Amino acid sequence: FQASLTVDRDFDIAPLDRRLFGVFVEHLGRCVYNGIHEPGHPTADEHGFRGDVAALTQELGATIVRYPGGNFMSGYNWEDGVGPKDQRPRRLDLAWFSTETNQVGTHEFMAWCRKVGIEPMFGVNLGTRGPDEARHYLEYCNHPGGTALSDLRRSHGAEEPLGVKFWCLGNEMDGPWQICQKTPDEYGRIAKETAKLMRWVDPTIELAACGSSAYDMPTYGFWEDRVLEHCFEFVDYLSLHSYFVKPPADTSTESFFAQIETNARYIEDTVAIADSVATRKRSSKRLMLSFDEWNVWYRARHGEHLKQAGWPEAPRLLEEVYTAEDALLIGGMLTMFMNHADRLKVACMAQLCNVIAPIMTEPGGPAWRQTIFHPFAQAARWARGDVLRPVVKSPGYANAKHGELPYLCASVVDDAATGQTAIFLLNRHLTDTMDLSITLRGLGMERQLVSAEQLQSADLNATNTADAPDRVAPQALDGVAIDGEQLRVTLKPASWNVIVTQ
Ligand code: AHR
């Protein structure tokens, strides 16, 4: 079937914030311990961090990393993770019913960030703790010196401030599963006072308040409105979290892919709520969004995947094995994120390693790329510059929630600095090829092909495993024809495609 995509250099959405390619490292299962950190592994460095995982994180192209949770954050004492390692306490982690050894804490994690070349995004505990510990943690991290806490940091070997710029004010405080869940008024008040104190300690930081923990939470909307009523003036971002599922009542791939539109609505509805609060407050401020947890997660989500008996250290939890179908949805989701670049500035794939993750490891053994690694890495590599408004003409399919959905999902990002234009394309048709005509107006008549790749698999359930780590991986996309401003290409059924021209 035929489809077309048109962009015009003059019609852009916004500059793309590179922090859309963030990830998440939580003290959960084998994400930290026996994940990014495994002293004794043949590739481990002097801090115990695996070199192969660090290299894969660099290849993934992640720009920012959220830490130390997640649900873990709501019971975390930051003081437990600093100072001499042999004096750090072992604690019960009530988020994941595990034993936390605290052998990785603030300084070790900062060392890992420097090794990988990634910006840290820290969170403060607004579950069991509050504004006082939050301002102390910030002072410990970012104050230059001359106070008890900043000098304590210096005595721990970090003479210079850590310079952590982005801070999350708690995690999923609306969720009944959260350690010390709050009502929206309780949380909104604490978020406001915490933000106030933290900004007084360091006015250069950016702060994200917790939105709902999912679009389908019964309190979604009400939560955002009440929380922002309290803290709108004091925060820069509101968070969104979304895990893509396959409900037993409808496991079709078509419905699975329709979550792209569901999450677009989640973003647009949240913008509408934030702007209505602004209107009520007679404010011209436009709050930005941080989609700081997102991924496919529906298989390893029950029973022993969430909790194991005996308070184990680093148990195997949430170890989702991803399919080719998941990789296609991730690609489509990334196009949707790019197309909301005017309000969406940060997004963190949850998580990075072993726990619902693009990178898997075996202790003492290999590290490999899950299927979802690939669309993320391609987007993080090529999406730079301004997102152009895509005009898509494509036949579609009927969806109960959203009506007619085009088979084609697309985003286009143009980098005036390099002259490169990256085109991201998902063909959601499961059986038919798409003859696609692309018009790049105002981007120059002498375009050359820089790169063209496709990701598709005859078996949508195909996975990458330790013994077959490259079963699902990008291949060359042949047959891209360029004629002036026009490109023509044929996209395979159920395929993710990335074309870069210059
Ligand atoms: O990413 C796994 C968990 O999902 C996080 O800890 C929590 O914030 C969310 O519910």
UniProtKB/TrEMBL annotation:
<keyword id="KW-0378">Hydrolase</keyword>
<comment type="similarity">
    <text>Belongs to the glycosyl hydrolase 51 family.</text>
</comment>
<feature type="domain" description="Alpha-L-arabinofuranosidase C-terminal">
    <location>
        <begin position="292"/>
        <end position="495"/>
    </location>
</feature>
<dbReference type="InterPro" id="IPR010720">
    <property type="entry name" value="Alpha-L-AF_C"/>
</dbReference>
<keyword id="KW-0119">Carbohydrate metabolism</keyword>
<dbReference type="InterPro" id="IPR017853">
    <property type="entry name" value="GH"/>
</dbReference>
<dbReference type="InterPro" id="IPR055235">
    <property type="entry name" value="ASD1_cat"/>
</dbReference>
<dbReference type="InterPro" id="IPR013780">
    <property type="entry name" value="Glyco_hydro_b"/>
</dbReference>
<protein>
    <recommendedName>
        <fullName>non-reducing end alpha-L-arabinofuranosidase</fullName>
        <ecNumber>3.2.1.55</ecNumber>
    </recommendedName>
</protein>
<dbReference type="Pfam" id="PF22848">
    <property type="entry name" value="ASD1_dom"/>
</dbReference>
<comment type="subunit">
    <text>Homohexamer; trimer of dimers.</text>
</comment>
<dbReference type="Pfam" id="PF06964">
    <property type="entry name" value="Alpha-L-AF_C"/>
</dbReference>
<keyword id="KW-0326">Glycosidase</keyword>
